[in-house]
Amino acid sequence: MDKDKLDRIAEKKKRWQEEAATARERSEPFMTVSGRPVGALYTPLDNADLDYEKDLGFPGSYPYTRGVQDNMYRGRVWTMRQFSGFGDAYDSNNRYRYLLEQGQTGLSVAFDMPTIMGYDSDSERSLGEVGRCGVAIDSLEDMEILFDQIPLDRVTTSMTINGPAAILWCMYLANAEKQGVSLDKVGGTIQNDILKEYIAQKSWIFPPEPSMRLITDIFSFAADHVPRWNTISISGYHIREAGSTAAQELAFTLADGFAYVEAGIQAGLNVDRFAPRLSFFFNAHIDFFEEICKYRAARRIWARRMKEKYGATDERSLKMRFHTQTAGCSLTAQEPENNIVRTALEALSAVLGGTQSLHTNSMDEVLALPSEKAVKIALRTQQVIAYESGAANTIDPLAGSYFVEALTDQLEAEAEAYFRRIDELGGVLPAIDQGFFQQEIADAAYDYQRAVDREDLVVVGVNRYNTSEKVQIDLLKIDPAVEEKQVRRLKKLKESRDNDAVARSLAALKKSAAGSDNLIPKIMDAVRVYATEGEIVAALKEIFGEYREKPLF
Amino acid sequence: MQDLVAELLKGNRRAAARLISLVENDDPQKRELLKGVYPHTGNAYLIGITGAPGSGKSSLVDWLLKQMRKDGLTVGVIAVDPTSPFSGGAILGDRIRMQDHALDNDVFIRSMGTRGSLGGLSRATREAIQVLDAFGKDIILIETVGVGQSEVDIVKTADSTVVVLTPAGGDSVQTIKAGIMEIADIFVINKSDLPGADRTETEINMMLDMKKSKAWRPPVVPTVSVNNEGIAELWNSIQEHRSHMEESGRLLEIRRERVKRELTEQVEYLVKNRIWERVKEEIEFDSLVEKIVHREQDPYSTAGDLLAKINFYERETGEGG
Amino acid sequence: MIQISSKKVRILVAKPGLDGHDRGARVVARGLRDAGFEVIYTGLHQTPEQVAETALQEDVDVVGLSILSGAHMTLVPRIKKMLADNGMNDVLMVVGGIIPEEDAEELIKCGNADKVFNPGEPLETITGYIKSKF
Fold it and tell me: For B58, which of A426, A545, A551 is closest by C-beta distance?
């Protein structure tokens, strides 16, 4: 836009401001859920430097601000992937088959806490936690049951597992082999993002260095044998859930992503050999526009850095593909039905932001594991957005909005500022060691809580329009017998398997762990003879040690 | 209440914990309790760990605990964290690093807030040490707040003082106030896998070279506390320092100094208390304050008048304080 | 100097069980500090034994447990029993997390908890409750 025109707009805007200033405004501050102040009006003045070709471009083309596919949802709508799992492998297998019948297009496995932390169901530490917030998996036997009658060459599966990701992945692959599916036909995702565990989610097992080695071992093994697998899902979701702002989620997640790229390069891999299989996972929080801008900024930053800093040339390395989940932390225990509305708005922001797959939370998740009815409503929410709302008819429909473009730029600039601070601290791992991320997030979480307590941020049904109605909603209960049953079955397995073979495989694994071989083939050998997850983790702990958190508040 | 002391001496952990609370809270019975505790103290060896926040003190303590337990020693830990001057509250998080020892009956860990004390320890650290000493711990580890320059109390309190530095602190040793350098019996360069560790070590050694020769030259021990590297060496250095302290007679000397200070403080405390009790009974303190505020009097002569009015000197000599 | 007791209420904020969601525990710990309490934080992934022993050594007046993994009906009664075995029956037990109402009622009815807070509770409600008890 030429200068004269902008000057005229500036002058008119000034006049408008003077008039608007006489009108009374609401008392609460105008800010996003991240505490970012928002102006009353955005105009071309806010996008004066925007260069369409350089900053936005076309869908499927660099810098991918408008989306990573040429035709986006006009080709195929996003994958509706509801995260679920509970009880034992039998219970979850039933739920998965129900979801597939309801039109869900991909599976997403939630594991229980003992599985996530690398303990078997019969460990003392697992007491009371088996099958509670996900499915209990101890060995290949459980994995076989989990995917019974689900052909692994026809569904893709996402597994939310990090510390012991290599082990669960090997179980999945070994199960595919048993189903007669060759590994190059198997597709899916493992979360496998250990950096955000240290930063936010806190389900770590090993210290950073051996953890990073396991990750690069997976990159390398997948590149050779499992080419359709997304080897990592670099996750901002948990950073946000831990209380970060949108800008922190964006910056820290991308910083983690670049750290994995650097680790892969340092392990001797060509960037274009593994980068196309990196995927991302973001949160969709309640602040509608800020979230949309976050996704757009993320794609642009990723493409620019991958090209300019890491020299990636394969365009698949430059395209940021991501999964989105609506914000669990935005749900309220009070009047839980309101959560359906929150989730719908959040899901719409993810769609307008160009997500590749989406999980919508169930309204009762803040109270317990979701019931079947609540899960169905959550899935229906996505289907309504996809097929009724019209949001999927055109690509990146909010591009060119003065506000949206300005906010996209602002988020990108804030992320760049964070990258500089992280560099000054020596990179992601040293910054973790110094507690940088943890402190930033803890501060943001505390500020948020204070803002809600002061009613600077309104949460309907909580700090405004609250009624003390009792919650009347049917919750899914996990039968405590699940734990006993699982432990009994595990005991039987440990008696009936070839225990000499197990001992041999674990000894070989430890030997390799102490050296520098790729560990994936050794873990494959161990899971094939039904070594349990807990046994494999314990063997690796002997060599690698355990991580301990930082005392920061 | 005296039952608590008896229980403590029998090894009751709950009694130890209660006693520390009572002395920390200035319970009216505090002095009586400490009288019962004192005869059973003097057996533990006291090790202070100080250094800037983030230097890894708590993980060093964790690893030292493991070493000491391997040698069959029983250990008490006092971990001090700052009390907020604004709210008076505190978050005491040093235990996070030490939770592996939570279930070891021969380790007792206690977190304390500074509660207004400025010298790097809490107000009641010394009394808490006495309780753990009488409780029968062989070693007592004291982890200071670690705010930097004001860590002077530890050297008056501990038999050996370990100063923890890091290469990544950004502080070249030159810039660290001389005070913290003077108190070290042992230097640790933690996180010594980070760049700059060699330089830090050289700088410390250069500073030590410039000092006139002393009977004990503080060793400089590089550690990586997250990986347990250098911990055995650190424990060796501490034991060597202890032998030096014992054999040279220096330990007795500093403990005598400590008793001297304690006795002086107790005398001062009693005198002060007595004076203030009288002042409270006989003088309208607030009205004097008002007069000084309005410049009708000055604090210097008022203080003298006040003591004369309660016949402080006369009664003090008459009743023997 | 007139002797004033400098008694402070000490609160253990503990994360028993395997879940790593410490956002709530940390925000509450800070809120309690800012309300003048002395907070001892255990860190994540504590066993009931560790929680009870820490409460004993630190001689706390309040034990606050944050549990989001659904294991509360197993963990809370175990910790309560161990505290009682340690002679700490009078400690105020406060539980926070994703606790369905009927579970909360049962924990309170059986004397395993004095109070249960759900997600989204304002800090002032929590600090105010504890203040009212001392």
Answer: A551
According to the CATH classification, is domain C10-132 in 3.40.50.280? Answer: yes
The percent of residues above 90 in pLDDT, for chain A, comes to 85
- Domains located in chain B, CATH noted: 41-248 (3.40.50.300), 258-319 (no CATH)
d(CA A367, CA B242): 57
Query: Testing the interface with C: which of A117, A202, A237, A361 to mutate, by most C Cβ within 10 A?
Result: A202
Chain A interface test: which of C13, C19, C23, C54 (most A C-beta within 10 Å): C23
Q: How confident is the model at residue B168 (pLDDT cuts 50, 70, 90)?
A: low
Nearest to B17 among C2, C35, C59 (CB): C59
Q: Which of A161, A203, A456 to mutate to test the interface with C (most CBs of C within 10 A)?
A: A203
> Where are the domains positioned within chain C?
10-132
Nearest CA in chain A to B62: A548
Q: Which residues of B touch A (CB under 8 A)?
A: 54, 58-59, 91, 93-94, 96-97, 168, 191, 194, 226-227
Q: Determine, yes or no, domain membership for A424.
A: yes
Asked if A445 lies within 8 A of C26 by C-beta distance, the reply is yes
Q: Give the CB-side neighbour count of residue B307, counting CA atoms within 13 A.
A: 13
Of A206, A245, A136, A202, residue with least CA distance to C66: A202
Report the alpha-carbon distance of residue A374 to residue B23 in Å, rounded: 55
The mean of the pLDDT values for chain C is 92
> Are C8 and B280 an interchain contact pair (Cβ–Cβ within 8 Å)?
no
Q: In what order do the strands lie in the sheet with A83-84?
A: A83-84, A107-110, A157-160, A188-190, A229-230
For residue A327, which phi and psi values (nearest 5 degrees)? -80, 115
Pairs across A and C, CB distance < 8 A: 102
Whether B28 has a pLDDT exceeding 70, the answer reads yes
Cβ–Cβ gap B103/C49 under 8 Å: yes
Contacts of C118 in chain A (CB under 8 A): 333
* Calpha distance A552→B51 (Å, rounded): 17
Residues A497, A553: Cα–Cα separation, whole Å = 47
The pLDDT of residue B320 is 39
Residue A141 belongs to some domain of the structure = yes
**Helix and strand numbers, DSSP H then E, in chain C:** 5, 5
Per-residue pLDDT tens digits for A167-195: 999 999 999 999 999 999 999 999 999 99
A325-365 pLDDT, tens per residue?
A: 999 999 998 899 999 999 999 999 999 999 999 999 999 98
Q: b/e map of A55-86 (b: 16 or more CB within 10 Å)? A: bbbebbbbbbbbbbbeebbeeebbbbbbbbbb
Number of folded domains that form chain A: 1
Residue C74, CA atoms < 13 Å, CB-side half-sphere? 22
Q: What angle do CA A295, A298, A302 make, to 5 degrees?
A: 150
User: What percentage of chain B reaches a pLDDT higher than 70?
Assistant: 91
Considering the domain boundaries, does residue A393 fall inside one?
Answer: yes
Cβ of A548 under 8 Å from any chain B Cβ?
A: yes
A442 Cβ under 8 Å from any chain B Cβ:
no
Cis peptide before A63 (omega within 30 of 0): yes
What is the tens place of the pLDDT at every residue in B109-161?
A: 999 999 988 878 888 999 999 999 999 999 999 999 876 556 778 888 999 99
pTM of the model: 0.88
A76, pLDDT greater than 60: yes
In a domain, A106, yes or no: yes
Separation CA A540–CA B311 (nearest Å)? 76
- How far is it, in rounded angstroms, from Cα C18 to Cα C69? 7
Nearest residue of chain A to residue B166 (CA atoms): A434
- State mean pLDDT over A410-430: 96
